[in-house]
């Protein structure tokens, strides 16, 4: 546990700094292009394209397959050197080819994701996309190197490198504001403006990837280009990745439907850019808590699964869900009652913040279920089973599509106003995630002959019970600070301060009630928190 604790703290600390600088990056970006402007939505679509395409060809493969396979390859006579060399060569070739094709196809990709944009907005998004799509190559290399470092228990660089990306982006976006003025200063986008804004985003990814390569020596592996892709187990990766590829593809197709639906939203109402910023807020606790604690557990769980120690795997599942749950329930309560001041960080006015808060609340419905899904899904991966996750993810994607289409129908019929369309899409996604985690948990329970669901569900119930008075205390604090007309919603910076104050109140009350309930998980949580203190190891 001490190893997992140290790794969790290292990842968590890096994630906190990364997310804080990412928040500042988003604030500066909103100041540059506006939260509900046509230019902001055009940039949001273009800058998301490389993430979406990279996810189709790479993310699922890396997270689901590479870590367990590198762990296994470490037992080879050469320590996995030949395997990793071939893997890197193949990955680089695929990423480079995909980057070239995607960049050439930029106009069609923009039309696919945002068909309801007008001609001028589509042209602007396409211009942004030409600058942003080369990120695919560098995102892929970053993840490939990072997952290899994780598999060798070198967790820090993968977590801390994105901070440099954020700093580069902040500097570039500030330069954009200095050169061309803040949002709304100009309605005409020149080639120079496009190059500075989108080029900055891509430069940040390039620098981030370059820094990560500097830490490769810590893996102890010496790799070289190797185009002989037979003989060291890449075939096994291909079999496992086939289902993972289909799973990620299904998710991206569902995302395309959501993007196409939200492209109907007129300028001035919460649209694609607001949804992206709400998702950024949603991902703050997920990244800090779920990824920092869950990633080391996944490496350990993979080792136990590979050795056939199924009882220890069941123990890993229960401990990780209970530990994650304690933090995630508190984060959900805090972010829910602080939704308006938190949303003010990424919006230009109190009215925009109130509308964006509705989108955030709809996403938050699925935060706790997704923490459970993280553990359940990766347990399947640890047993080299990517087929089962494909099917329960396909179910989730189908529900996402149906709910998005339902929201669009309601919007078209005049039942749903434009200001609520994005929130409806987000709520549909959360509902789909809840169904997904229920089905996934049931399937894993059947596969392992029981995963002690009752014990960790009881713990989650205990956390939820403590969260109720904590949320009430947080909401009363928000009202005492003036509510929707108070100082916490009057400015971006004050919104961040207000959200922090509300969050602290929620956490203090939450911990107090858990102490009254004598929750045993508090001991584990306090141990993790103490590791963040100076001088602790």
TrEMBL record:
Q: Which Pfam families match?
A: MurJ (PF03023)
In the UniProt record, does the keyword tRNA processing occur?
no
**Organism encoding this protein:** Microbacterium arthrosphaerae
Return the InterPro entries for the record: Lipid_II_flippase_MurJ/MviN, MurJ
Keywords from the UniProt entry: Cell membrane, Cell shape, Membrane, Peptidoglycan synthesis, Transmembrane, Transmembrane helix
Protein name (record): Murein biosynthesis integral membrane protein MurJ
Q: How does it sit in the membrane?
A: Multi-pass membrane protein
Cross-referenced NCBIfam families? murJ_mviN
